[in-house]
Specification:
Number of domains: 1
Strand order of the largest sheet: 1-2
Order of helices and strands: EEHHHH
Distance between the termini: 55 Å
Largest sheet: 2 strands, antiparallel
Helix content: 40-55%
Mean pLDDT: 92
Shape: elongated
Number of strands: 2
Length: 94
């Protein structure tokens, strides 16, 4: 059986025979065991945690010299631009 993820990737799920072989391998391996339902519930999801207010990608046009100056300021320039825009908005300059 195959399932498709939200991103479009297709995964083949193991058949009953595959599952039996996997369980048999787990049973004979002294370094592992099959997780109980309680242990499985304690696992944390992988990936970055969801944030309450995610940032939105933006496409805009700026003068080349402005962009070059921002990039020349080093890593984190986009965060600094966001901070400058936030300050302008909160101070009422925009």
């Amino acid at each position: 059986m195959q399932v498709k993820s939200k991103s479009g990737r297709v995964f083949r799920l193991p058949s009953d025979n595959d599952d039996a072989a996997i369980r048999a391998g787990i049973a004979v391996d002294p370094d592992t065991h099959e997780l109980t339902s309680k242990e499985f519930k304690q696992l944390r999801p992988m990936g970055r945690p969801r944030i309450a207010c995610p940032k939105v990608p933006l496409t805009m046009r700026v003068d080349v010299d402005v962009l070059l100056a921002l990039r020349a300021s080093g890593q984190g320039w986009q965060t600094r631009v966001n901070t400058l825009l936030r300050e302008a908005v909160t101070s009422g300059k925009v």
